[in-house]
Design goal:
heterodimer, A: 774 residues, ten-stranded mixed sheet, six-stranded mixed barrel, B: 230 residues, alpha/beta, 9 strands, 28% strand
Amino acid sequence: MILRHIIREVRARWVSVLLLGIMIALSSFVYTSVDLGIGAVERETDAYFETTNQEDFAISVTPLLSESDLDHLDTSCLYPVFTLNGLYQEDQSCFNNILNGRIDTMEDIADITLEARLYKDVSRSDVERSHDIRVMKNSETINKTYLENGRLPESSDEIGLLKNYMVRNGLSIGDTIKISESEYAITGEILVPDYTLPALTHPFLFTTDNQSIAVMTDDAFHALNASVRLEIAGVFNEETTDLESAFAEADHDFYMGLTLTENNFRSGIIYTEIEGSKGTALFISVLIAFIGIVVVGLIFKKLIERSRRPFGILRSLGMTERELFVPFLVSVLVFSVLFLGIGYYIGYLSGPWIRDFFLDFYLLPRGDIIVSYEGVLIAVFVPLFVLMAMSAIILKRLLSKEPLDLIHMKVESDGRFTFKTVQRLIRKLNYFTRMQIAMLLRNFVKVTVFMIAIFSALIISFMSIGMFDIFTGTVDDYYESIDVRHIGYLETPRDIDTPQEKVIETQGTINGSQAFLIGLDPKSELHPLTNRDGEDIRDDLHEGIVISRSFSLLASIHAGDAVTIRLAGTSYETTVSGVADIYPGEHVFISREVLAQTFFDDSDYFNAVYSSEPLDEEAFMEVFTVQSLIDSMDEVHDLIMNVLYVVMATGLVLGMVIVYLLSVLTVEDNYYNIALFKVLGYTNREINKIVIGGYDKLTVLIFILSIPATMGIYRALTWFIATEYQMVMPFTFEWLNVLVIGAMYGIIYVLASLKAKRKIHAVSLQAALKIYQH
Amino acid sequence: MIEFKSVTKTYQEGKVATTALKSVDLTIEANTFLMVLGPSGSGKSTMLNLMGALDKPTEGQISVDGEPISQFDEKQLTHFRRRRLGFVFQEYNLLQSLSAAENVEVTARISENPLAVDEVLEKVGLLSHKDKFPYELSGGEQQRLSIARALVKQPKILFCDEPTGSLDEKTAKDVLGVLKKLNEEDGVTIVLITHNQSLAKIANRIIRLNSGEIADDTSNTPEPVEAIHF
């Protein structure tokens, strides 16, 4: 009989009950899917890094020949070249001597082992669009190649590629691809541990649609017609030490910087990603669970309150507390297990999807989904326990009352303790505002939940909409601001007969921070430089250097600062004459003539050309086309957008569910007050103003508060990513976003208010005459 | 003056129709202290709902001071209650999150010519409790506060639904004393419904309802409140 009563109550409020169920399921789902999906990635990753001996740090060294390199240069190696690559192209043994000399020098600094990590960037010539392939020379001790399927290349016409790239391009083991004029047969699917993210040409460009890591035999690698580039991979032999300080103190002229793997975007972001994703998932599920449980508690309390009178009658007829307690608790158990189970099951089904989604970006082995007892405990049993305990307490408190107390209905408010304090503070406010505050205080717990839930939903929405253009924004904005469409790289300067702009692009350090130095003519027509106010600051190159806003943030260097540029052992002191409003990375602009004269002893030196027209690829060592980068970024953008839409929708659904449930609850809580107001002669409009008006103002207040909160989170995130990964993510707060989010939540709120108002209008006047409002 | 002409009220619940009032004719003059008596289900509450513009009759006409309230729409009824009527309930129906003065202000705010809140609280003997919250007041004090809330708008008619139903004898007499004083000194028409026969002595007119019909309608020489015994 009690069960029948419960079923009728549930039927009467099926929408609310269903929404509650969805919230409970959601908390279990979010945790389970991420726990299983990320867990599968995490388990394999640890073993993978162990087997392949992932580097602990990477050292950047200058690509130019430095003074100290001369100690390792045999007289037979005196070629007219400035760069390591130039020497590599002339004589590999001379190149190796210098490299080994540098490694030996650095290994003396601390108890570390180093190995040069050579690579060449090439393009496939058998596809229409540019496909970038970074061919890694096989390592012997650090960052060893990992084979997922097939075998490693054994002859010069074989190649191993990333599985992700092969899948996305319909390639299989046994197929061939063409690089320049040579064909290579694919022998296996490979991974390398220093690239867990395929960020080859740009940190934000991490799809494998048109870029891949590859390995070949050493002979094939050397035969590739492309510049050799390198970093020095290193591992700590015993204990980790403060290498950065040690290297800075040693001050070798070829040393440019050191990045610990955990701070290295291409290899270390996976660590933060795994921890961050698990933390975020736990936070979101706890948040949803908390809101859900409190809302469940509130609604369940209402449900029990409605059963109060029947309880009283049944108790007075001789039914025991236990006979009433058990069916209610069993109902809660069934309800909770059902929805937590549904949430867990959907989470279980989504686990592989989450794992595969991760592995679409990250270059890691694919692990199996393994259900753990801990996961089930956290996703199902913990919320179940909390729900059951909360329900048992509510029931116990109610049933412990005397039958007559149960029969005489009371609807208690939860804000008594605050009435007196607040009354003094709001005495001077106008009548309706005081009434609205009094109504809000009546339901203090509910209002608090409402505030937290709406605030969280708003932050989720703001964060997702704020990231819509973040990836393309950094690149697209920069390349749209300049007229450079093609960049041709040369190993040695020589005459060129096209009206292209001569530039120097090279790596250096400024006040110890790594920088991408661009020697630019102050009269450059293709590459304007503008400050935040949109003013042309190319002339500032006559006074000193112009740094990008991202470099300014990363290195904490500002306009007017005196700086020291170091390049291959030579130093040059100058000042920062301007900050260009661009975010492409560590870009620093300097007059080409000054750069050429100071570091290359030749004021006409250049190593690249900028062009608005297509370049003859045969005439250059390498040609970079801006459009291909923009196209690739657009693909990343589309992928990210899909994720952001899901996050955005989650925020909106959360907001909708909360607003709907709480608007329904608000009217129910104030049912007898509303009836009383009606009897006293208040119009519906006045009653709406009193009962709903407080929520209107509160919602607007929360919305306004969420704006500075979002700005604060943006700043914190920018700071965190810049500090940890030496990368600037320019989260920009757009007022248009405020309008969009405001409009969306406005619509949700207005719809919920309309529902609440309809309910208010339906309240019977006679209710006030019948029921005691305690 | 309240006038009922052949007023019938039928409630329809599903297929079952219940007639709560059957063709009632009744005139209540101004300044009357009317006591409506009757057992449960006799139609007392229905009569109060109809007089108090809380409900509309199924048949017949009701007018109050010449205004045909049975023909009013919901908006007009609201406006009418707002201007003219006061209500006192058995269970006080006070807003727990408002102080005593603010509970009175709830009515004062929507009245055309309200009395000062302090003046009304003094009239019911609660001025010293004006900043207290309902849960800090005794039952009798709460009922006096609910009377103050009704009085602040200077209503012509005060409807009281079992106002002493939840009070002990002494407290009930205090409350009845306040009502009697309002009737005699301020000329407020009081309509009080109760099933407690002993209260009838203080009214100047007594109506007994039974099965939706007026079984008895008598004039009475009112006795002082102290004379009644519960």
